[in-house]
Amino acid sequence: MKSYLTINEVLKRKHFNSCEVITGKVGLTNRVKWVHVMEVTRVNELLKGNELILSTGVGWKEDNELCLSFLKQLIECQASGLCIELGTYTSQIPQNVIEFANEHEFPIILFHEEVPFVEITQDLHALLVNQQYLMISNLENYSQQLNQMLLSVNDPKDILQHLCESTGLLAGLRIHSEVTLFPACLDLPQQQLLQHHITKQKKNQSSFFTHSIQLLGESYAELYILSTNDFFTELEMLTVDRTATALAQHFLRDLYVEEKKRVQETEWMVQWINGEISSSQITHCLQEVLHDFPIQGGTVICCQCIQDVKLDHTYLKLTIRAIFEQEGFHLLILEKKRELVLVVLNKRQVTTWRERLERSLNRWINHVDLQEVNKSLAVQLIGVGQFNRRLDHIYKGYETARKTVSIQMTLHNQVKNHICFYEDLHMYRIISLVNEQRELQEVVMEYLQPVLEYDRKFNAKLFETLKVYLACNGSKQETAKRLYIVRQTLYHRIEKLEKLLGSDFMAHEKRMAIEFMIMTYDYLFALNVSTTAIDELEKASLT
């Protein structure tokens, strides 16, 4: 089934009974998608290709050069052929025109008597439109059959078998490294021919092409199609496209079911990240869910969500699993109340794990197709835990990932990126540990109280000056520049700091302690041991 005619088929119509083909008999297989009456000699902007041109020759009459120019334009525009009515305006076709048409295998058809161009166009256009309508109708029927099959079949091979039986095409399906040939009843020569095309895959072959089956933004399988004719009809191309879409839906359904099954079987993961199962149990459980072993260590990512994880986010999990797989990770996903836990297992070199993980996280957050899903999940903070080479130490990754999220939430005004690695927290890790001893506030006030109290009374901005002065490693020029003050003002503030903190406050050990207490003060302030609690502490110490 096709949406065009060939010139050979046109010549069988009743109005062409007495016509004569004088050139380009090889081109009688040219496709005709429309019929057009053309009486002008400049046609470059008027044609789109595959038109059969009807003309009386009124445009060039007996002008041989003008006739040749008209022919060249038709060939350049990829017209199918030229039909000329002799007698009224032109009596013969110039020899140079005949020779040029034969050189380019371009058919010229002569009517030696007057013919009704209107009836010719009506007849051929009706035939073309009916063929297009029938093609669309057949395509719709085929699509409905595919939809019915998707509801019942469990094997994609049945879909491809149906394609080959419906069209007569030969097909091959590659998933991973395995190639299956269709139809199932292929004889040996057909198998060898199809295998040859699949192996060679030469470009610009009119009877063979490859169709990639896309799933979650990536190529999941390859579909190879071979026609037993010299080229594919439009219906065949559209049928193959519909089949590829049906296969993609079938594969996605299988992945979806597999993902739902994974969710139901993740109870052991809870025990794993809590450190409650042995190394041998971990290995046994992983061998059931992983295709390739061994694993080169791993970590845990905690995603803090604003709302409870109640919705079905199977599509999200399928997509981010595919993203992480491309960077050399295997992903196990666990949903908790307001937390999405990703156990990230490394399959490549340990030295590159972080840069690959950062790329995966950024691709997930910026993935266009996941914007709405991410919004519904409302991921607020992402904490990446400590990397561990031993799988029975993965629970430490979970503990440190949760600690990372906790510190992020504490420092919410100071965190520039909502994705944070535990190994980047440095001093804040120490501060959070010391803070658990509940004596940290008194130590902070022991060092910083004089400066804070002076600022309270005189609004002198000494605390800000102290932070910038230490950050600039004692450079007065750089400090004044960052604070936007003149040198004399800075000198006055430094003198005041020396009186409040001691003239040795820039000495190595004391300076380290003061810098530590400034970071701690910021941490406690953000923690909402905050302004009110510190004020009360200051007043109590003054009392």
From TrEMBL:
Top-rank lineage group of the source organism: Bacteria
Descriptive protein name: PucR family transcriptional regulator
Residue ranges of domain Purine catabolism PurC-like in the record: 9-127
Residue ranges of every copy of the PucR C-terminal helix-turn-helix domain listed in the record: 462-516
InterPro entries registered for this protein in UniProt: CdaR-like_regulators, PucR_C-HTH_dom, PucR_C-HTH_sf, PucR_dom
Organism: Priestia veravalensis
